[in-house]
Amino acid sequence: MYSDPSAIGSSDTTDTATQEGLIQCCVCMENRETEYYPTIPITDNCWHPNLTCLRCLEYSIASDHSSKMWDDIRCPQCAQHLSYQNVKNFADENTFAQ
Ligand SMILES: [Zn+2]
Ligand SMILES: [Zn+2]
Asked: Taking the complete model, does pTM exceed 0.90, yes or no?
């Protein structure tokens, strides 16, 4: 009686086409566009594609930084140590200012 057929599917704008070009972050499992990922290797020794989005990378650095020393911050994907310069590339300004 009260069903409105025009409402069904009309607000559903999920587009399958945009799945292309998205990368799934290995940390938060979100599908994000490539611009959300680092364009350079996380550390000088990283051999893998960057599957950690910048947000997770930033978070990982911040949490490592709060519990460890500068020289024990690691890549979330391969556990290589980040150099001071690597950290500087990816950490947000607040983390770096501490
Ligand atoms: Zn992520
Ligand atoms: Zn790595």
From this structure: no
